[in-house]
Batch of 2 targets.
Target 1
Amino acid sequence: MAGEQQGELQLVVFRLKEQTYGVDIGHVLEIIRASDITAIPGAPDFVEGVINLRGRVIPVIDLARRLGLTPIGVTGNTRIMIVEVGGTTAGMMVDGVSEVLRLSRESIQLPPAVVAGFSAACLQGIALVEQRLIILLDTTRIFRREEKEALQELAKQAQERAAS
Amino acid sequence: MFTEEEVAIFLEELEEKLQVINDNVLILEREGGSPEVIQEIFRAAHTIKGSSAVMGYEKMSTLTHEIENLFDRLRQGEMEVSGTLVDVLFEALDTLKLLKDEITGSSGDVDVSAVIEKLRACQLTCGAGGPGGAPAGGGTVPTPAQGTGPDRLLPAGQVAGTAAGLSTTGTSTGYQTYRLTLELEEAVEEVVREAELRGFQAYQVDIGIDQGCQMKGVRAFLIFETLQQTGEIVKSVPPAEDLQEGRYGPGFTVVLLTREDAGQVHDLVFSIAEVSSVEVRPIRLRPGEKAPLSDTSSKQPAKKEPALSGKENVKTVRVDVQKLDTLMNLVGELVIDRTRLDRFVEVFESRYGSDDLVENIVEISNHLGQVTNDLQEEIMKARMLPVAHVFNRLPRMVRDLAHKMGKEIDFIIEGRETELDRNVIEVIGDPLIHLLRNAVDHGIEPPEERVRLGKPRTGRLLLKAAYVESHIVITLSDDGRGMDPEKIRQKAIEKGLMTPEQAARASDREILDLIYTPGFSTAGTVSDVSGRGVGMDIVRNQIEQINGSVEFTTAPGRGTTFTIKLPLTLAIIRALMVTLGDQVYAFPLTNVLETLTLKPGEIRRVRHAEVIVVRGQVLPLVRLAHLFREKGKEEGKLSVVILGSGDKKVGVVVDRLIGEQEIVIKSLGGYLGQVPGLSGATILGDGKVALIVDARGIVKDAGVEEIIYEVNRAG
């Protein structure tokens, strides 16, 4: 099993907007059905709201929005993947979880240089598995609120306030 | 090396012992050195010395060794308590605290040599003043009987006399020792065996009482009391009832279960007057053997147990608060499930009403409900700490301040044991210190002035904590100058806070409340203790932040009383639940003044802002829907919640009022951070999350002054 730690990676694979993504299983605590999300007024737009996870209030983000895609609506297949990153427990809304996959580190390639910008920072790499492209996401990056973003957020709020 | 846990236990014990020394030195200063007080300090110093030596904290053990020496001499009556001594002791205490910080790493290298020098010098200089002739009574008089304290029961001469009289009948040491061979009944033996398993040692304590003793019953009672402080008495010969009636011969015997060592038990009992001999022998039970083994006499100090075997640490467990929070969350879940079960039971009942099974289910559901409630309550209690955690450090502060300001103050604390949530405890320290400083600095007059005014020379400062309904009320009252509304009126005009006309029109209460204005000070002069005018506003702010309130009453020349009302816990509050769109929001009830329904026509506009008039008062109006950029109800009557914080009031329009409810406050978590307009979340009975509105924030942001200014200008 030592080889697993060095050369292998276990991923939770899920769908989001017709694409297949994967995150390191080490960060994933559980996967639950999406229900009763309470919206938070004034929070960043990619924050879908908060849920009650066995007595804890956990923020949930709309992963699609976080990655700069159009938001997904909540359907019967929508799942919330509860992850723990850097001491924070949070949820990500995804379109459905398909499997847990084992793959070697060699099969992962760095994201192409053309893909740059804000959401590219969340990409860890791309893996080709049986003719499927799986986009590896860096959960730490997804939930790290960069100072720059926070500032942009503040600026945006100030503008809106001035306008209203 | 010692593990982190061992160090933590050591530090906890150290903290406790330092507090004991601190408290007792304060008593020492106030009331002089009674044998009990001296004994307490001696014992605490002794314990620290022992455990710090085991842990290898050499400086600490050297320093406590010096303190112990000093108190040993006090105990022997070779020295007297003096002002210098107390000052040096406080210095030594501060150094010990620094040493403690050194261990935790929050303080650098501490030099103890200076204070040790002082302690030694003190022993030399103060030594001369000891009560000279007392030990002359044959040289063998037991020391505790001649303590220098006020609660000594017999004049020294008389003790010496009795002792001399006795020595003729006694042994060569001047005293008869009382001794008894004890047979333990099976039941007692069982208790002893069980106690041993839990780390207690059983001792047979033989106590001889002076032949000339007048009140044997009282003596026995005192000894029982004293011993019960260290452990439990499981048996006595003769029985306790007889002892308390004074029906016993030259002495009696008890079986004591304790964690103290034999030497300490011996010293404790021996410090009681008219005890002529004490013998402490450990009881060792061997399988099948009943009689106690009497091999170690306590006269030679019993072997020291490794100091870390600790005293109280078996009874308490240190638990991370976070774990308690998690437990609390889980219980919350249980409550939700129970509610659901209740609903299910109802359905079940209506469908299969007559079935036996239904009755079973109803019963189970009810029982589950009770257990859940109890569980919730117990966990809440587990988070509580006695308010002593804050109060204990205050006497020293008051003493130092009083010294500095040349005041004489009798500081009384009541209700130390009152328990409240640890979060509340963390917050109230600062405001309390502030109020105390004020009281010492401007409240209580200098002694001469007090005498001139016909008041007792010593000022009285009373700090009291008590439960009132579901709150904790802390009152701080002084018998000092009080506040004069007239003076404050003058000051307000001087500072331009009010025009003379306004000041004349304002009620005394309104004037007094000016002390909460930032930058306003009633003090004639500014000292380095207080009077700069930063203060009361901060005090009020801090207390309001934890949903508390502060009020005061004052009478010129008679003093001031501050009353701080605090919630028992921060985790649960009463809230007004409202809806907006399809979401539920909670307003903390402490900030809700009233609710109204309005017709849209009652809203007026002042420039760009909406206002309403409530009983002649113009209040700004905020629409929660606008604030949260949600779609609210547009037509029909408006439900308005009037919020207040400080002196500001604001009306908030919501869709519908639901009612009052107790809610458990949860944080939104570090990821979301501070969301404007919200102060947290809570979980409703149906498991949904509702958001808690930051009422104080809304009131603060509403720009009340500008609107009132506008209105005043307009009309």
Target 2
Amino acid sequence: MKVKVAMVLRYVILVLGAIIMLMPFLWMVSTSLKTQPETVKIPPIWIPKQLQWANYVEAFKAAPFARYFLNSVLVTTITTAGQLFTSILAAFAFSRLNFYGKNIIFVIFLGTMMVPGEMLIIPNFVTLSKFHMIDTYWALIVPWLASFFTVFTLKQNFQSVPDQLYYAAKIDGASDWHFLWHVLVPISKSTITAVTVLQVIGSWNAFMWPLIVTNTENLRTLPVGLQAFTTDAGTNYALLMAASTFVILPMVILYIFLQKYIIAGISKTGLKG
Amino acid sequence: MEVTFKDVSLSYDGTREILHHLNFTIPEGTLVSILGPSGCGKSTTLMLISGLLAPTKGQIFFGDQDVTKQDALARKVGMVFQNYALYPHLTVLENIMFPLKMAKVKKEERREKALKLAKLVHVDDQLDKKPGALSGGQQQRVAIARALAKEPSLLLLDEPLSNLDARLRIEMRQEIRRIQQETGVTTIFVTHDQDEALHISDHIMVLNLGDIQQFSSAETLYDNPSNLFVAKFIGEPVINTLPITAFGHDLDGAVPAAILAKTQTVGIRPEALQDHPIDTGTLAQITTQVKAFEKYGREKNALVDYNGNELLSTEIQGRLENHQDLTLYLQKSGFYLFDEAGQRIFGGEQDVE
């Protein structure tokens, strides 16, 4: 009996937590199906009288979302792939190679993780403008081709792989390069998947940086494009929420499919045995 | 492939040497064990042979070729690690094929060779499993197959049996012997277990504190230990050792006085203490008191006290009572005298090495 009560209590708490987490999403979907007056009605209503599916069509037409979508896909793919590549190499160097100043460089890099991202906006902007990269795809991509968080996570994972495996690969005729790509990377699959998904989500949702470094409409990404619904005359919440829904949909799907890896990769500290 | 070490020394930090001036030759096609207590430098020696470590001083030759400067990639040896170090993300077959893939062997040829090896080591019914799904013994076999895949000139085994249970260990050491004889590959086997070394090898190198104590056949090691360390390390039960002073005048006449004068320690194998006189081999006799007498199966052992030193005899024929006096006859085979430095100066065959 006691066990059952505890069980019920546990589930109640979990469900409450889930509801709190889901509330903004439900509100977003609900708002996206309301008429303009309904969105600002007090007291708020959850279920609109008539579902305004037309909001989605109108929202999609309100701005060149196809182009934004393409931009988002392009920027997300290139930054994620680039960042993974540089991070895997750096993580390998920090975990397996011996070179002069390794520990000092690592500590300095680690220090950069303590600088808040907002602090970097101005120096990054100044640097890129000196390279004449502002308002180009380069501005959206180049600053994100390296991430020490990813390097650090992968390094911890690489270090948990036993040395003997490295020696065995050497004996088997594998160079460092081969060992990295044929042994270390496949073994670290779950961690790599986790950091990839986190990076994809971060890149897809990035707002501040793309907003600052692009002016041309053709370079806008989806989150920046959502501004189209905010004008001097106010915000059209119904359309904004409709657009938001289809902007975050790919990420929700991605997360649902890969959540197993994300949790395993982040919570895991080492390989078994 | 014949392996030769010429004056090889190793030091990790430049001040403390782990290995001191090793000189030895391992003949082609033999199975040699490197035996020693932990920390003696035996695994380090293997790492030097494999090229995973470079010596601080000296030269290493494979055949006539100086390979001192070559790394593990270039030396083309096969190696089996203590924990097998199989690639966890690859199947058994892929593991065995990995060295061939690295050597850019064609796919069909790779498969064919790997299948042959899997058969040789008896894992051909496990090809599609991942290492995690195999038992220790099976992983061991896969590791050996992988090490043999590129037809190495040398097969190196680093304590390959220490993670197996007792029965499997005996089975696998026979397997290693069989595989070595079938392939004829020069094999170097590192172990801390004398039993393993004695059963498996053509020659045994005994290492301690970075020095070669003796390098000879198992029989020679046992019958003619070159020093006190080898005498104590090889043999089960362990050899009896006692200071020469314990004997008083009991050895007078049996051993030349000049040798006795140089002797510090006496070593007597338990089977060299007989409770009855034997015409040919008896060197001297000593009077002892029985401390404990044990009989199990066909074995009768006695622990006796001799002038304050404990001695074990495994050659008791009669029944004994505790505290009774017992005369023991020292047999020449199995009786050794060691000088201050621990070198053998009497017993065994004098002219060996």
